[in-house]
Input
Amino acid sequence: MRQAGRSLPEYRKARAGIAMLDACRRPDLVCELTLQPVRRHGVDAAILFSDIVVPLVAAGFELDIVPGTGPVIAHPVATAEDVARLPRLEPDDVGFVTEAIGLTLAELGQVPLIGFAGAPFTVASYLIEGGPSRNHEKTKALMYGAEPLWHELCARLAEMTLTFLRVQVAAGVAVVQLFDSWAGALSEADYRRYVLPHSTTVLQGLADAGVPRIHFGVGTAHLLPAMAEAGADVLGADWRTPLDLAASTTGRPVQGNLDPCVLFAPWDVVEPRVRAVLAEGAGTSGHIFNLGHGVHPATDPDMLTRVVDLVHEVSARA
Amino acid sequence: MRQAGRSLPEYRKARAGIAMLDACRRPDLVCELTLQPVRRHGVDAAILFSDIVVPLVAAGFELDIVPGTGPVIAHPVATAEDVARLPRLEPDDVGFVTEAIGLTLAELGQVPLIGFAGAPFTVASYLIEGGPSRNHEKTKALMYGAEPLWHELCARLAEMTLTFLRVQVAAGVAVVQLFDSWAGALSEADYRRYVLPHSTTVLQGLADAGVPRIHFGVGTAHLLPAMAEAGADVLGADWRTPLDLAASTTGRPVQGNLDPCVLFAPWDVVEPRVRAVLAEGAGTSGHIFNLGHGVHPATDPDMLTRVVDLVHEVSARA
Output
């Protein structure tokens, strides 16, 4: 469950007074924050505490993460000069991630660690918009209006992402997950034209890495078959996409898809919905139970624990 | 093209110093702002200048529209008492809309006028969140966690919306459009359980009104068949949903679906995309060309005029 930490009092305590990007660059803290949801909930895998802008910052690009807002970029990418000035990521730039993974693996024991990175479209959207965006207007304006520049930008981001994920694999993560959070804003035709080649660079670039590759975005019911072509072994789906449909249209195992907002309801509402997700997943060729998006910060941690327990109970009986 | 006015200098001039909600309540200004895109672009229909919160405000609910943000509600709806306190809309409360429609029709001549209102889910989301929201967390928390209260709230909003649209029909609009902008945030199963009954109250309640009913939301590829069941004669689709799929899964004529962000690109990019939408629409049993969402304020008005001209040119030849 991505961002499960955000709802934990021990997370808020550990992060107190430490900015997000500073936390991501402190191996001891990354280790602690990665482990917290495993300790608390007994989940079957840990996900590396990080942010999709970490490789950009590590390479020397100037940006900040503003609490309650997200990444904010003082000088957004707009021109060919801006793209040309984007720094390249050297593996040594993210030595702190290698170190953090080493510390974390030593603590995790048999629990596998999932590495992660943001996909080129989603990272490009932050770079061009200068922050989070509802409609991705500037991103699409550049994409539609300056296609060669768009491809140049995404090729650079794909290279950076691939480098970053290779570092994580070399450090020992057991699985990698590529998040294209906002790709759902595109039609399938546009996704194929402007995005798929670059996500393919990343995911196919890891074909020989020996770890399963998960690919996920929000609101991608109409894109999943195309996203599967990028080279993912597992496709994540949010609650809008029925798991059986996700599985049948992609021919892949699927991960998902309980709406994290369901966790705000009482247990007698949550329980049948967790069971329904598991039942739908059981009808596919392979299902990893998960939420359909990150954990909302206001979620009751005890509710997460109950969900994990129920998933384990039902899975053990299956 | 909804919100086409926002990109016009004559719109900004007419609105200068006048708050959105004040503009919506001044019949002379509503008439002028409704007419501007027709004069400028020669579109085939006008859409009433209004906002989805207008009936709420007219009924006496306190809220504001903040420029650059949207509706902001000082005391969001959270409890049974809040729902019980929601004012009812009497037709006389929106006499200014009747007057505005009268003035507008007198100026429009043969050009039909489209009335509009927000659907219960989307209006409820603003009321509960207190403003625009990315994840609709509080809305879903109430929906999942307090289902009877949710249905009571939506039943009241449906009644209000139906009253508001009946006033518009009585005043002479030729078409009504019901916007459920954010319904795409739900799975089809949840849409059917929590939303469809209330949108049906509105749209079926207008079955005898003698005007076509258009129903639209953003990111609704997975919901269109369910949305069609609410009683719409025409389904709007955004650019994520191929028009042929929208038509075949709903059995209805479709409206859409050029991505308004495409209009930021040069004409040699825009032109083939407009032609592609028209070609896709020509393969259905009925197509109304439109954008897939409102016009972005930064759009070049001349680009909109060129698009309208091209649609007319291609349609005249078909």
Notes: Chain B touches chain A at residues 134-137, 140-141, 144-145, 184-188, 190, 219, 221-222, 239-242, 259, 261-262, 264-266, 269, 293, 296, 298 (CB under 8 Å). The mean pLDDT of chain B is 96. The first strand of chain B starts at residue 46 and ends at 47.
